[in-house]
Amino acid sequence: MKILVTGAAGFIGFYTSKALINSGHSVVGLDNINDYYDISLKYNRLKELGIAKNEANTFNNLCSSKKLNSFSFVRMNLEDREELPKLFKEEQFDVVCNLAAQAGVRYSLENPESYVDSNLVGFLNLLECCRNYNIKHLVYASSSSVYGLNKKVPFSTDDNVDNPISLYAATKKSNELMAHTYSHLFKIPTTGLRFFTVYGPWGRPDMAMFLFTDAIVNNKPIKVFNYGKMERDFTYIDDIVEGVTRIIEAPTKQRIKNNKLYKVYNIGNNNSVKLLDFIKEIELNLEKEAKKDMLPIQPGDVERTWANVDELIKDYNYSPNTSIKDGVKSFVDWFKSYYK
């Protein structure tokens, strides 16, 4: 298949592009390479895919990878209503995998406009392109943050998600509603994936795994919110990508036949880990104790996440299973190597 992967310079988009290429698909990666976090990390991910920095910098110009023949890249904003339809018309994609978004719960308190531009306007533009250019399946990233103040665990896709507590979560819930509308009106198969705290090598610098490791290495205190009384369903990147690629590669004929065009799944480790245990695992791998700055819970944060993945198992015979021990070791080994 020819597949558009948006957010291809991002953490999950980079790995997903790589996995799809290795499976024999032709991939066009799209990213605007914004400066929400260190862009050198984004350029280095693209370098791993065979795209040079000077090529990646050119807006709206498709460049082909010299390393991976079946990968090409375009720097573009999803909300670009003139250029995105041109790309769809030219490339004739079979499937779209939307992993582009303005990420981050806390940042949405500081810069709400960027979430509206990327996550709402950009997503609508993408849906319109899927509608007008005969896309067979839209797979898109949602988030565990849509569960908001949900107290029932583990979180199920049957749970009510009408109470988001951050703008980021609200935009992700909006994406699900918008996708449902387009599935209903225009018969486009759409699949939303609620990711649960993704971590691993090449991960985002604003995520806990990266922040904690970096601080401990540099003898700085780590910020432990809610005085450590947090639990997260930490999910290793390889497990996330395996779920994403299975869903992309699965035929949609049966769903169309059964009129089940709209679906949402949790992708998580189905296990809630205490934040302090997670920190301890990082300390063990670094052979160094963290200096902890215990702080109150931040606005927009939830105390606990835990994914029920029964639907994923039922429909795709898949459940993430990488242990925290193995996952943290992989990240710390990469961190040491990358930052020498």
TrEMBL record:
Q: Which residues cross the membrane?
A: none
SUPFAM superfamilies in the record: NAD(P)-binding Rossmann-fold domains
The NAD-dependent epimerase/dehydratase domain covers which part of the protein?
Answer: 3-268
Q: Which Gene3D superfamilies match?
A: NAD(P)-binding Rossmann-like Domain (3.40.50.720), UDP-galactose 4-epimerase, domain 1 (3.90.25.10)
Task: Please provide the record's keywords in A-Z order.
Answer: NAD
Task: Give the protein's recorded name.
Answer: NAD-dependent epimerase
